[in-house]
Amino acid sequence: MTKVLSKRGPDEENFYFNEHINLGHRRLTILDPENGHQPMSVTYNENTYTIVYNGQLYNTEDIRKELIEADFSFNGYSDTEVILKAFIHFGSDIVKRFNGIFSFAIWNENKQELFLTRDHFGIKPLYYTIVDDNLIFASEVKALIKHPLVELKIDKQGISELLGIGPAHTPGTSVFKNIFEIKPAHFAIYNKSGLHIEEYWKLESKPHTDDFETTCKTVHYLLEDAIKRQLVTDVPICATLSGGLDSSIITAYVSNYYKENNLPKLDTYSVDYVDNDKNFVKSDFQPNSDNYYIDVMLKHFDTNHHKIVIDTPELATALEDAMIARDVPGMADVDSSLLLFCKNIKQGATVAVSGECSDEIFAGYPWFFREDALKSNTFPWSIALDERQNLLNKDIAKEINLKEYIDYRYKESLSNVEILDCDSKETAEKRKISYLTLNWFMQTLLDRSDRMSMYNGLELRVPFCDYRLVEYMWNVPWEIKALNGREKGLLRYVVRDLLPDEIVNRKKSPYPKTHNPSYLKAVKQMLTDIMQNPNAPINDLLDKKYILEILETNGNAFTRPWFGQLMTGPQLMAYLCQVNMWLEKYQPKIEL
């Protein structure tokens, strides 16, 4: 089980064995190499506690100070030791006080119970299954299935998740039958009486009483504090830079911090594709390319910049590794390009700081503004419902109605949104779309960031996802959040003196995809080869006739992005290739 997680933790492997529990850990060394070994055990008041942990705590020193005042001492300065001793002192309530990215498990020997938890937004993954009264857990599904008791199956719900919701997923579930995830902001306790799960944090709707000036100051403080907290490391750190507003904010803050503290010049990284500027096609979702804006940033902040350029063959070839990193078909080349990007970054750094999650928190996506999305009565990044249903093998389609399943999940999710009497009509409407975006779309991108980076032994940090900033922005009225009627209007205003005007005013442009026609040609050939194989497992799940139609029309059978903003014809073909790769490699048993 630990062996298949070696990419997540390439530096060390250790185990803890006990009559009732076995724990294994793979380490990516970031803090305190000498004293941060795991599994870590501490004996206190004649009881032994043992932890396995993945992540980084950003308020380690605040918690350590409290523990020292409570007469705890420390062998080193790792956050692992702080988390374990904080749990001993405060119990399960401690998770409410942690600020960071984490999933961990702590075994209490005297009570013979296991405590499992995950950070506020599930930035770090944690899966589990229960078989014959055995709780089996791991950071990724690929580790679970190495346990001899675990068998991979997909049922109607799994198929609905894969082809109806995918590449997103319903929080708490997986596409596999009886394999679950600890939901973000939840903890679980497993003992002789079974599994008890509890939510420890959620977004609460409250009247926003700060005036405009105070709101701006608070956002500025929370953002700067989140970024600075995430720079703690004993290994090289860098920033990703696309020339967009979000990555530019991160780069500006980190670069200035480095200069103020007389640190070496900051390394920044961007990703592009062979012949992309030559083949770039402007669209509503991608209005301009990045290179000009990256150069603007480099003139202002003088970072040590690395332009990573990916070619079509490696982008297509990496689709399989990207699927393996996620354990399911994902966002096609949007995943494989990030995987290759992280592979290149890892050559110079072990930690990267990214601008991910700003669009979800500050309302950057087109669907916050587009009437067709706002009135779609479904997840606005995934409105091609009929086309998804048409993908299903005809026999399976008789058993499964994807629209019904999607509607159920959509309504279930919206029922959790608390609208206030004082909310304007627009604020109320935007609360709903913000909730969906934060809990579904952002989760998909966080999954992507974690799997693609950790597959390369790289930790990707996301300061915009600091729960204090998200909590504050949740209650800022729409009229302020979308200041001047613009996407991320408030954020643009807050950072107007930090960045060049061209960056502040740049229209939102998403993570870059390839526009090289050779990519369409490559994935079309891959899918054609699959469809020419009569034994290809994809035919057991999907409708061969419809896939051939997709091939004939270069993917134009899907007339609009089928997920997010960028996933059109080429990405659909790549996704279908990933589905076949997944069925071949994981061989899940289909149960209807």
Number of helical stretches of at least 4 residues: 25
Instruction: Assess the beta-strand content as a share of residues.
Output: 15-25%
What fraction, in percent, of the residue positions are helical? Answer: 40-55%
Seen as an oligomer or otherwise, the chain set is single chain
Query: Which structural class best describes the helix and strand composition?
Result: alpha/beta
Instruction: Give the spatial strand order of the biggest sheet.
Output: 3-4-5-6-11-12
The N- to C-terminal Cα distance equals: 29 Å
| Mean model confidence by pLDDT | 93
Structure, explained:
- The chain has 592 residues and is of the alpha/beta class.
- Helix content is 42%, strand content 16%.
- It has 25 helices and 18 strands.
- A hairpin with a 2-residue loop joins β3 and β4 (47-57).
- It starts with 11 loop residues before the first strand and ends with a strand.
- The model has no long low-confidence stretch (mean pLDDT 93).
Key traits:
592 residues; 5-stranded parallel beta sheet; 6-stranded antiparallel beta sheet; alpha/beta; 16% strand; single chain; 18 strands; globular
Short description:
The chain is an alpha/beta fold and 592 residues long. It is 42% helix and 16% strand. It has 25 helices and 18 strands.
Q: Helix and strand layout, with pairings?
A:
Layout: E1 12-17, E2 22-27, E3 40-44, E4 47-57, H1 60-69, H2 79-90, E5 100-108, E6 113-118, E7 127-131, E8 134-138, H3 141-144, E9 153-154, H4 156-165, E10 180-181, E11 186-191, E12 194-199, H5 212-229, E13 237-240, H6 245-260, E14 267-273, H7 276-279, H8 291-301, E15 304-310, H9 312-317, H10 319-326, H11 333-346, E16 351-353, H12 358-362, H13 371-374, H14 385-391, H15 394-399, H16 402-414, H17 425-454, E17 459-461, H18 467-474, H19 478-481, H20 489-494, H21 501-504, H22 517-531, H23 538-541, H24 544-552, H25 569-586, E18 589-590
Parallel strand pairs: 9-18, 13-14, 13-16, 14-15, 16-17
Antiparallel strand pairs: 1-2, 3-4, 4-5, 5-6, 6-11, 7-8, 7-10, 11-12
Helix pairs in contact: 1-2, 4-16, 5-18, 10-11, 10-25, 11-17, 22-24, 22-25
